[in-house]
Amino acid sequence: MANTLLLDVKQVSRSFGGLKAVSDVSIQIYQGELIGLIGPNGAGKTTLFNLLTGVYEPSEGQILFKQESIGGLKPYKITQKGAARTFQNIRLFGNLSVLDNVKIAYHQRSKHSIFASIFRLPSHFKGEQEMTEQGMELLKIFRLDHKKDELAKNLPYGEQRRLEIARALATRPKLLLLDEPAAGMNPQETQELMQLIRWIRKEFDLTILLIEHDMSLVMNVCDRIYVLDQGQLIAQGTPAEIQLNPRVIEAYLGQEV
Amino acid sequence: MMRKNKNFIIGVLISLFIYLVIQVLISMGILSDFWISTIILISINIILGVSLNLINGFTGQFSIGHAGFMSIGAYLSAIMTLDFNLPFPLALLVGGIAATMAGFLIGVPSLRLKGDYLAIATLGFGEIIRIIWLNTEYVGGASGLSGIPALTNWTWVFIWMMITILVVNNFVNSTHGRACISIRENEIAAEAMGIHTTKYKVIAFMIGSFFAGIAGGLSAHMFYIINPNSFNFMKSFEILVIVVLGGLGSTSGSIIGAIVLTMIFTLLQDYPEIRMIIYSLLLILMMIFRPKGLMGTREFSFQLKKRGEQYGKHTSA
Amino acid sequence: KQTSGNSASEAKTIKIGIDLELSGGVAAFGSSALDGAKLAVKEINAKGGVLGKQLELAIADNASKAEESTRAIQKLISDDKVVAVIGAATSGNTLAASTVAMEKKIPLITPSGTATKVTVDERTGKVKDYIFRTCFIDPFQGTVMGNFAAKDLKAKTAAIYIDSSSDYSKGLAKSFEEQFTKNGGQIVTKESYQQKDTDFKAVLTRIKDKNPDVIYVPGYYEEVGKIIKQGREMGITVPFLGGDGWDAPQMFEIAGNEALNNTFFSNHYSSEDTSPEVQKFVENFKKEYNKVPDGFAVLGYDSVQLIAEAIKNAGSAEPTKIKDALAQIKNFKTVSGTISYNETHDPIKSAVIIEYKDGKQSFKTKVNP
Amino acid sequence: MLKVENVNVYYGAIHALKDVSIQVNEGEIVTLIGANGAGKTTLLKTLSGLLTPKTGTITFLGKDITGIHAPEIVKSGLIHCPEGRRVFANLSVEENLELGAYLRKDREVKEDMEQIYSRFPRLRERKRQQAGTLSGGEQQMLAIGRALMGRPKLLLLDEPSMGLAPILVQEIFNIIQEINQSGTTVLLVEQNANQALKIANRAYVLETGKIVLSGAANVLRASEDVKKAYLGA
Amino acid sequence: MEYITQQLINGISVGSIYALIALGYTMVYGIIKLINFAHGDIFMVGAFVGLVSAKMFQVQGFDPIWVFIFSILLSMIVSAILGVIIERIAYKPLRNASRISILITAIGVSFLLENGGIFFIGPQAQGFPEIIPKKQYHLFGSIQLDSNQIMILGVTFLLMVLLQLIVHKTKIGKAMRAVSFDMEAAHLMGINVNTTISATFAIGSALAAAAGVIYGMTYNSFDPLMGIIPGLKAFVAAVLGGIGIIPGAFIGGLFLGIIETTVSSIGYSLWRDGVAFAILILILIFKPSGLFGKNVREKV
Ligand SMILES: Nc1ncnc2c1ncn2[C@@H]1O[C@H](COP(=O)(O)OP(=O)(O)OP(=O)(O)O)[C@@H](O)[C@H]1O
Ligand SMILES: Nc1ncnc2c1ncn2[C@@H]1O[C@H](COP(=O)(O)OP(=O)(O)OP(=O)(O)O)[C@@H](O)[C@H]1O
Ligand SMILES: [Mg+2]
Ligand SMILES: [Mg+2]
Fold first, then answer.
1. Are residues A118 and A236 in the same domain?
2. Where are the domains of chain B?
3. Contact list, E230 vs chain C (CB under 8 Å)
4. From D15, D20, D42, mutation site for ligand 2 pocket: most ligand atoms within 8 A of C-beta
5. CATH code at D192?
6. Would you say the CB of residue A88 lies under 6 angstroms from ligand 1?
7. Transmembrane residues, as ranges (chain B) (predicted)?
8. Is-contact C167 C157, C-beta < 8 A?
9. Domain count along chain A
10. Within an 8 Å CB–CB cutoff, is residue E188 touching chain A?
């Protein structure tokens, strides 16, 4: 299964002013893998995500997704091509209901035109109903269905995180990028999240790239791990290899884990 | 969906009832000209408010150039009826479409801008349009076009008011409208969800401008005369006040805002010296006591039983 | 539903409507005119009113907006049941009101709406039979000044600097240009500003560069005062000329006495005019409001006098009769001159040319039409 | 030192803290653990005067500080290092530290700043840099440093380890112990309950707005319930 | 050449007045992110207080310089108090409301001041004493310049520097910037947010008042609506320079003045404002946060 190359990042760099936040990074991710991305604060992990999802344009290098170059495409185009993400700082549509949050993510697949919606043609009703049904299904999976009419901003933190993941899944991605999904969760909640990630990966046939500082999560779920430091890739390998890598220990893990 | 439809039918029935009552009062001569014109003015303001709300309230794009679009509709429709003898409905459409095109032209480049910068750019566009009218002798320059036939009547404004409300409402309550709202809520996330944000901003601008143009045409054919000064930035602010006072992102709010503000302004007619003082005091007070506007983001619902619940929270199942 | 006239004639008072700019951008014009009108009503009523009835003003503010002007006159006619309306102060707002007045057959007198199309339908060329004005039309003043510049001041070249947001200003400029060139003069440049502008140096530098013999600035005192002041500061010494919009005591404060020397304008009357009408009016106005009347106040005052006279002549306060009587007005003495209406409802009256000299208006000449 | 009695806090209709009573003694590290949304942040905000309790009293150093304006509370030596760092991104590192000493009128501000710099040498390197451009860990150091500049008698820390690399998490906990040893009492809120309980003297467990457990830190760390609910074992 | 230089001087002199008004505008914006629409009207009130007090001091027979200093100080003090009162009554209750709601309140305050002015003072324009008589200077023969123009540019520049120093070097300035970024965190530093915001309004309004008096002296007139257009122009100038950035307001003001003068000087005075707006929009399209604004995109 790990044969088709899904994401191929080729020597990508990005600088801000004088600062090289990501420098000459190459990453290959195969279909179905679950990859971890770790590194000290400010190493450039989120910046790399931003490059992958079109928030920033690479200064140099190429990003191939499903053999297509996506470097510099607009975020919505990249999402439509099948890469979705969550954000390090939660970015839900706070004043909208939980269900609407998910329905918005289905928007790009909707087929009814503005014209149909304004004149309430049958295709509008059909389209909207489909969205609602699919949205509800997804919410059920994430155990959020009983809160579908709640405003997103009123959810507790953990549920907001789950909703963000659900919303990203609603875009039907091939590749899911998760930026610190366990931040602010206690160990117990982190474990539940770990189960959830494993489960959706199977259920939705996903490839996942994950940034996380919680080593219990990273080491347990990831197939392979990339380590960034000061914008550069300093190590890659299986969790076991990474844990013993002296450079990683020095820069990131510290003595005791 | 059943509930939506029921709501819709009740809404239509109530509107028709209002239409008929007013129409009867007009034909029986019970309403004086002044009150007829007040009702028409309210309706025109409703069209303006509801359409600007689509841009400002729902899509979250801070625009204060609505008077500019309105003026395009006003001038073009007036030229159409005056110089080309076009029938009124057609002339209105020409005005609306011209305003839509302007909305497109303005929308595309300026939507790179955010927040206050967008506001000042739209204000600038509005002023540029006004200055163009001011310097065009064909449309009368500073004194404007006069002798425009009085073709606007209650029936026409009512029809256009209903069309505006329905179109904006149907748009907003669809996946397309949600796309716009998601831009307001968090543009970066919206884009990450695959929403072509620029496209939807431009669409919101175009729909909003279309109805502003229609309102301009109706107003031109109501008050016989238009001049560039009627469409200066203060007019844009007036419309913005309607929208914010009613509640950003609430169509019912814009309707109420238009009614309340127009009525206050009209009722104060008898006190010319203190009219604007009271008007501005009321404005300040209303904002202090209802900072989210009279309606917040809530909408009218004809299910009166549920009102209480909706007041607190969006929990209706 | 033409009941307003009847009910009014049975009432104890005669109601006259006021549709003026009392708030908004040009509130200054409207409120001056209102001061004048109120004074006139007070004086007339003190003398027993008209046809034994007291006059009563119904006041509506048009907020300096055309559409509000329409609504104001609608209210005056349909709710207050006035028999005649005074307003508005600017041509644009008068035009807006005139359509309603025509439709409802209520006479309308604008104190200061000078544009030709106020009383004559632009498209059909027909005279609007219910619409009158108290002021000159634009061409007359422009012509007078065009002659004055060429003949009295012996100017060969002139610059024109107009208020582009005002038809009044444009109208005066147009006829000035025609008359001045007819007299062999040459217009070296035409420039414009907008109401509420405050800095005119850029354009004045341009004008100065062209070296005209006179500069014609047919605008309102607020801007003209600044223009003259700044012009003089920049070393422009040639005469400035203008129209009745200049007539305000504030001119001295804004421009300063010294800068005003060697400037001339055409006007309806001169407050220095020794005629008893003028002197009495200025005195009464000062007593009432503790300030010197400006041109708008005079015209507001005269507008009421005109309506009162028409009602008296008609012997009735019915709108149609007032209208007919207005059209017949001949040699009626007002503060702003002796008025006879011509066929286009424009008053034929003499103009005066006034020179500002050492902090005073000094009467220069009187020009008869 | 700090005594909280039967405090109730509401967000509109939401009852976020229900009859909460806790106590912090001089020289202690007390930790507060609990699930997401339990009300930990709410409690800290209430203590520092950002929120006003509906009922209940808060006594600090023998003085009733319930409902007092936040700056006054800061003056009395109770300093809150808020969740999510909240450094002033548009100000330089040094200016941030100076603001920490905003209310101080004494002349030792400079010395204290030197001390902070020697505790966090990284900050000294970056003292002219805009705080917003610091990495997460650096920002966290700055936030703690800034709080220390106010010479707290009681320091409230809200999830200081959130979002930090493991190596920094370790460092932060070391720093907290150091601060405590040099005489500052600490009330610590942490998701990383394991670590927190390791360095704390006593602990409280907050669950949906109520204190459900309290006791010596090492006792709680050994408790099966706590383990299952918060330590993920 | 002379012509061009003269026009440039004209442009700078108009521009420095825009800049002067824009300083206060931009400062208030920088701290509380409010487009204080009433700024132009506080400017008007300042001018009025200056007018009344100048006349009063003149009657007392003071030296022109002292008349100027007394009346500008008095007007700054009165306006500062007015600014603080307005903030307390009209803006403070809305501190947690959306920015657009506060903008509407600001529009209400603006209407109130304008129409209050019309009600109490009357709508007619009136003269404003020159206070300090202008001296004319001539450079290279015919290029003309007056003492007032030099004074305005000087005062504006000084105030710009002063303001920049206040905001960036003083304790209250630091508090202001802290409040502007994060009110709650500022509270935790022991900063009294209300006092800080009041101070901001006081300084902003005092600046507006100073501008009002100088404006009145320059153009020798006062009317209750005099603040509308300069207020709008100053807003444009502030945006042009990058709203919230103090030197930006200065440069933006000068730039706007020069654009306007240029358009007028080549004979298109009718299109002056149109061109100015068109240039503004073009600049914004290429520099979406103004000339000096850093285009900080939200960090994702
Ligand atoms: N828009 C930007 N402008 C300037 N600098 C930036 C920008 N975005 C990121 N940086 C800088 O790039 C570097 C990498 O930041 P990034 O957010 O990618 O780190 P990270 O690895 O995600 O760290 P953390 O684990 O703390 O989230 C940092 O030094 C950051 O300050
Ligand atoms: N501003 C607010 N308005 C309404 N409800 C709020 C607000 N802030 C917090 N809450 C609610 O109050 C409860 C307690 O929140 P609090 O932030 O104190 O939790 P916490 O224990 O700090 O959680 P976390 O571990 O996620 O930081 C939660 O249910 C939360 O949703
Ligand atoms: Mg990151
Ligand atoms: Mg918390």
1. no
2. 37-231
3. 198
4. D42
5. 3.40.50.300
6. yes
7. 7-28, 34-55, 62-82, 88-108, 115-134, 154-172, 202-227, 239-265, 277-295
8. no
9. 2
10. no
Q: How far is the CA of D208 from the centre of ligand 2 (A)?
A: 10
- DSSP letter for each residue of C130-155: TEEESS--HHHHHHHHHHIIIIIS--
Task: Please report whether residue D133 resides in a domain.
Answer: no
**Residue of D188, D185, D102 whose CA lies nearest to D146:** D102
A140 and A197 in a single domain? The answer is no
Determine the average pLDDT of the residues in E82-101. Answer: 92
Q: Rounded CA gap, D207 and D224, in Å?
A: 16
A185 Cα–ligand 2 center, Å: 13
Q: CA of D77: which chain E residue's CA is closest?
A: E190
Pick the residue of E1, E124, E130 with the most C CBs within 10 A to test the interface with C by mutation: E124
Give, using CA atoms, the residue closest to atom 5 of ligand 2.
Answer: D11
Q: Residue D139: inside a domain, yes or no?
A: no
Give the number of the ligand closest to the Cα of residue D42.
2
Q: Does E101 touch chain B (CB under 8 A)?
A: yes
Query: Which residue segment(s) compose the domain that E56 sits in?
Result: 1-120+147-286
Residue owning tokens 């009503």:
C41
Name the helix (H) or strand (E) containing B206. Answer: helix B197-223
Is E188 close to D99, i.e. CB distance below 8 A? no
Q: Which amino acid is at B270?
A: D
Q: Is residue A46 part of a domain?
A: yes
In a domain, E90, yes or no: yes
**Segments in B54-87 forming alpha helices (H):** 66-83
**Neighboring chain C residues of E261 at a CB cutoff of 8 Å:** 201-202
Closest residue to atom 24 of ligand 2, CA basis: D36
Atom 18 in ligand 1: which residue has the minimum CA distance? A44
Would the CB atoms of A117 and B196 count as touching at under 8 Å? no
CATH number at residue A207: 3.40.50.300
Beta-carbon pairs below 8 A across chains D and E: 66
Distance separating alpha carbons of residues C65 and B275, to the nearest angstrom: 15
Q: Which residue among A100, A123, A157 closes a domain?
A: A157
| E244 is a domain residue | yes
**Total count of residues recorded for chain E:** 300
Give the tokens for residue E116.
């209050």
CATH of the domain at E35: 1.10.3470
A181 Cα to chain E: minimum distance (Å): 15
Contact criterion met (CB below 8 Å) for B100 and B217:
no
Q: Cα of A156 to ligand 2 centre, how many Å?
A: 7
Per-residue pLDDT in tens (0 to 9) along chain D, 233 residues: 899 999 999 988 889 999 999 999 999 999 999 888 888 999 999 999 999 999 999 999 999 999 889 999 999 999 999 988 889 988 999 999 999 999 888 888 899 999 899 888 889 988 888 888 887 788 888 999 999 999 999 999 998 988 888 888 888 899 899 999 989 999 999 888 888 999 999 999 998 899 998 999 888 888 888 777 777 65
Cβ of D39 closer than 6 Å to ligand 2, yes or no, is yes
The answer as to whether D155 is a domain residue is yes
Q: What is the ipTM of this complex?
A: 0.91
Identify whether E141 is part of a domain: no
Smallest CA-to-CA distance from E186 within E168, E166, E165, E171 is with E171
**Ligand 2 centroid, distance to B106 Cα (angstroms):** 43
User: Of C347, C350, C354, which is closest to residue C367 (Cα–Cα)?
Assistant: C350
* pLDDT beneath 50: ranges in chain C: 1-9
CA-based radius of gyration for chain D: 17
Chains that touch B (3 or more CB pairs under 8 A): A, C, E
CB D133 near ligand 1, within 6 Å? yes
What's the domain range around A48?
5-82+173-253
Chains C and A are touching, with contact defined as 3 or more CB–CB pairs separated by less than 8 Å: no
Domain containing D72 equals 2-90+151-230
